[in-house]
Amino acid sequence: MERPFLGDKDKFPMLPHLIVCPGTLVAQWVSELKVFLHPKSVDIFTYDSQTDGADFWSSSGPMHRSKHQPQNRIIVASHSVR
């Protein structure tokens, strides 16, 4: 099967998932993810206009404090974040 999005790689990269949606739907996405995923199986982070980007991505920020593997982290971001 042809998979041009993987390039010359055989496996998917083990990276966090990013969901981008309107700011008014961020809370709804988080709520729905919590319904469909097993509790404590993933970390769900919100990234919106209230988020301090420098803190979020810093070595002491939530992404680095997570105990889950990168592929078990989900970032729900509003499309209006700068």
Low-confidence stretches: none
The count of strands amounts to: 3
Order of helices and strands: EHEHHE
Which structural class do you get from the secondary structure elements? alpha/beta
Indicate the radius of gyration in whole angstroms.
14 Å
Description:
The protein is α/β, with parallel strands linked by helices and 82 residues long. The chain has one domain (14-78). Helix content is 24%, strand content 20%. It contains three helices and three strands. It has helices at residues 26-36, 53-57, 62-65; strands at 17-21, 43-47, 73-78. A three-stranded parallel sheet has the order 1-3-2, covered by helices on one side. The longest helix is centred in the middle third of the chain and has 11 residues, at 26-36. The radius of gyration is 14 Å and the shape is globular. The chain starts with 16 loop residues before the first strand and ends with a strand. The mean pLDDT is 89.
Summarize the structure.
The protein has helices spanning 26-36, 53-57, 62-65, and strands at residues 17-21, 43-47, 73-78.
Main traits of this protein?
single chain; 82 residues; alpha/beta; 3-stranded parallel sheet; 3 helices; 20% strand; globular
Topology (elements, then pairings):
Blueprint: E1 17-21, H1 26-36, E2 43-47, H2 53-57, H3 62-65, E3 73-78
Parallel strand pairs: 1-3, 2-3
